[in-house]
Design goal:
The complex is a heterodimer of chains A (304) and B (312). Chain A is built from 13 helices and no strands. Chain A is mostly helical. Chain A is elongated. Chain B is 80% helix and 1% strand. In chain B, strand 1 and strand 2 form a beta hairpin. The C terminus of chain B is likely disordered. Classes of the chains: A mainly alpha (304), B mainly alpha (312). The interface between A and B is large, with 50 and 56 residues.
């Protein structure tokens, strides 16, 4: 983005930019490592599936075809209409996969979003009230950070039983402590900056100082944290669903498909391997892009 | 190490434990009546009342809380109403198996991860470096349940070399240990590489080169010991990941440890067992964090003085 702006300094640059120049594209792309491009394409594809699963899926993900159970993918000799074969109830694996991607990404976005909003809000609260409010919030942060969250999630599910709403809330509680800690620290330092003092002395309400002036200044760091938390939310959802304690049938998610496909590994391995690969490539792509971004943004890390 | 630093750290550890115990008590109380779950909806009122009195559930809430707290502090985690067995006994039966798996996995990740990281650092930006680091990213990106399934598929179902579940012989632990150790191996490799690179750029390494120490000795005697220090401390932070990982790994390979006990207890709603495991793991984590904190403070005086005053 920045490069583009730099190029448009003179009228000649603008003319060049407007002229369709196909050679420019490979040059631009060549700046990015191949793995990063592939990862970005994969993530883009997953988002596409997330939005358009309805249009892409050839069948409803619950439609059963009992005579055609556990059929192999059509290119491995299965029936023609089932591109990736069928599961133990004769449901189309491709359609289920597309819907599973939708549910998994939906849960991950919603969960990570809830965690971000909750954590950021509590961070502001801690920084505003200081004193015992801050102390107790930070103790909660420490307590949660010191426990493996999968265990807390399992305990809550055991005690309250499973429902989709509760499950989303659990996803949201995962990771809030990172935002709370970050926000508190950044707000404390922003409060001493000139602009915050200036706005405050002009008589602005605390809420307006925090949300209209400080928040826009720290949001970029929170967004980075969001992308860092995203894969861990996906892994939490898929792990719980894999254990049979997360997303429940008839709904499906990538982890739930993988867990159910385990029963049929010997003769129908693709039912488990396909959703598993999608989870793997999603977390891998985000890791690769995240590493690359970190190196770009922080040149001191380049040699590490 | 001054007294105040230790006191603050110990106090925080105790507070964390208190939060976890209170959390366990709260969700236990919020989740409904265990007697009704145990006896079912159609049980006689008298029978329910009898059991409520037996377990002290007819007392006021604050009294139950104190009793609960005292019970846990004295090591009583209750009684599994489903398996009809003492919870501490059940957990203690499973702990050695989990430790065996966890320590083997840790060993596997050290043996694979650290040498790979060092080799990568010594061949920086060459093909071997790129290859190992890509391998490391794969290692910690692959979800352990998927890696476990792939291994079972390949080595148990197709090649028929290794048993797919249970424990007993040496061959049973191979796949679970690799599954559990893979993500640690990946992150240890990356950490070892960066730690090694940092040491290689230090001025004492240049001094050693200047005074003519051969490369082999420079690496063995000057670089490796210094690069190992941060590695030792990072191991403490892997504990939480190992615990989460062992829950899933034990479920995949039907390994009779604490993780599998937990998953089956959650599925069966055996609340006493779930809560017992929650508290045990919390205690383990709190003690481990305390030890890491104290070692840190002991090694690095800057942390000792600043952490006692301010928690940043």
């Amino acid at each position: 983005m920045n490069d583009k702006r730099k190029e448009l300094n003179s009228p000649q640059d603008i003319k060049d930019a407007l002229r369709p120049n196909l050679r420019l594209i490979p040059k631009r792309v060549a700046k990015y490592p191949l793995l990063v491009i592939l990862s970005a394409i994969f993530i883009f594809g997953m988002m596409f599936v997330f939005i358009f699963a309805d249009f892409l899926a050839p069948f409803q993900y619950t439609t059963m075809d009992l005579p055609n159970r556990l059929k192999p993918p059509s290119f491995m000799g299965g029936p023609e209409q089932y591109l990736l074969g069928t599961d133990e109830l004769g449901r189309d694996v491709l359609s289920r996969l597309l819907y599973a991607v939708r549910i998994s990404i939906f849960v991950a976005i919603l969960g990570t979003g809830i965690g971000a909003v909750l954590g950021t809000f509590l961070g502001f609260v801690a920084a505003h009230f200081r004193g015992w409010v801050e102390e107790s919030l930070m103790m909660l942060v420490d307590a949660q950070a010191s426990m493996p969250f999968l265990l807390i999630a399992l305990a809550v599910l055991a005690f309250f039983g499973n429902s989709f709403t509760l499950f989303i809330i659990i996803m949201g509680i995962n990771g809030w402590e990172n935002y709370a800690r970050l926000t508190r620290g950044m707000v404390l330092s922003a409060n001493t900056h000139g602009y915050a003092i200036a706005v405050r002395s002009l008589g602005a309400k605390p809420s307006s100082v925090y949300f209209r002036h400080i928040l826009p200044n720290i949001i970029s760091i929170l967004i980075v944290q969001f992308t860092l938390n995203f894969p861990s939310t996906i892994l939490l959802e898929t792990s719980l669903s894999f254990l049979g304690l997360g997303i429940q049938p008839p709904l499906t998610s990538l982890g739930q498909m993988l867990g159910a496909g385990r029963q049929h590994l010997l003769y129908s391995w693709w039912i488990a391997v396909l959703p598993g690969s999608l989870i793997f490539f999603t977390t891998l792509s985000i890791s690769i892009i995240g590493d690359w971004l970190r190196d770009k943004l922080d040149p001191t890390l380049k040699n590490r | 190490m001054n007294f105040q630093f230790v006191a603050v750290k110990v106090f925080r550890a105790l507070v964390t434990m208190w939060i976890v115990v209170t959390f366990a008590f709260l969700i236990l109380k919020l989740s409904g009546d265990p007697i009704e779950i145990m006896l079912g909806d159609e049980a006689d009122t008298d029978v329910i009342e009898y059991y409520r009195a037996l377990y002290g559930l007819d007392r006021p809430l604050h009294e139950q809380y104190v009793k609960y707290f005292v019970g846990i502090a004295s090591g009583d985690l209750g009684y599994s109403l489903i398996d009809e067995q003492d919870v501490v006994e059940m957990i203690m039966e499973a702990v050695p198996n989990t430790l065996l798996l966890g320590l083997t996995a840790l060993g596997v990740s050290l043996i694979i991860g650290v040498p790979l990281g060092i080799i990568a650092a010594l061949n920086r930006n060459k093909a071997i470096d790129r290859f190992t680091m890509t391998f490391a990213v794969f290692g910690f990106s692959i979800p352990n349940f998927f890696l476990g399934i792939l291994l079972i598929l390949m080595f148990s179902l197709w090649l028929r070399w290794l048993p797919s579940s249970g424990m007993g012989t040496f061959w049973h632990i191979v796949m679970p240990a690799i599954t559990l150790g893979a993500s640690s191996a990946g992150s240890l490799a990356r950490f070892a590489r960066s730690s090694m690179l940092e040491v290689l750029n230090k001025s004492y390494m240049r001094t050693a080169t200047a005074k003519g120490v051969p490369r082999r000795q420079r690496i063995q005697w000057h670089a490796l010991p210094n690069a190992a220090i941060p590695l030792v401390t990072v191991l403490g932070f892997r504990l939480g990941d190992l615990i989460s990982g062992s829950i899933v790994t034990e479920a995949v390979f039907a390994w009779p440890g604490v993780g599998r006990l937990l998953v089956s207890a959650v599925a069966a709603k055996d609340l006493a067992v779930v809560q017992g495991i929650l508290l045990m793991v919390a205690l383990t984590m709190v003690i481990a964090n305390l030890i890491v904190d104290l070692i840190y403070g002991w090694v690095d005086p800057r942390i000792r003085t600043s952490a006692a005053m301010d928690k940043d």
